[in-house]
Amino acid sequence: PMAMDQVLSDRDSEDEVDDDIADLEDRRMLDDFVDVTKDEKLLMHLWNSFVRKQRVLADGHVPWACEAFSRLHGKELVEAPSLFWYLSKFWFLTSLR
Predict the structure, then answer these.
(1) Helix or strand run (H / E) with residue 62
(2) How far does the signal peptide extend, from start to end residue (predicted)?
(3) pLDDT for the residue 86
(4) CA separation for the pair 83, 17 (Å, rounded)
(5) What confidence score (pLDDT) does residue 16 get?
(6) How far is the C-alpha of 7 from the C-alpha of 17, rounded, in Å?
(7) Which pLDDT belongs to residue 13?
(8) How far apart are CA 88 and CA 85, in angstroms?
């Protein structure tokens, strides 16, 4: 339920992104892919979620984002070598731009 000050406020929340809903929609979209592995889908989901929350908007942000992403998800990347492999491949491809 909304508080009365929210109801009476001039602020419009319609443009806000609900991270939980966005994550759910992202997973649903990725599930539709049939030519990628489960680990590739997981990495794409982690990256999409990270980029959305950190507002990575331009190609110039990608080097910082890659470093921050690897720090945030480092444990997962070390525990699943295939995730690290796909991330390395992604970094290589983005460096070609």
Answers:
(1) helix 62-72
(2) none
(3) 85
(4) 27
(5) 63
(6) 19
(7) 63
(8) 5
Q: Residue 27: helix, strand or coil by DSSP? A: helix
Nearest to 77 by CA among 66, 64, 62: 66
The amino acid occupying position 92 is F
Angle between helices 19-31 and 38-54 (to 10 degrees): 150
Q: How far is CA 45 from the centre of its chain?
A: 6
Token code pair at residue 28: 């649903």
Q: Which two tokens stand for residue 83?
A: 């995730």
Give the total residue count for the chain: 97
pLDDT at 9: 77
Contact predicate 39/80, CB 8 Å: yes
Long-range pairs of 34-38 with CB within 8 A, sequence gap ≥ 24: 37/82
In the block, which residue shows the tokens 């319609």? Answer: 14
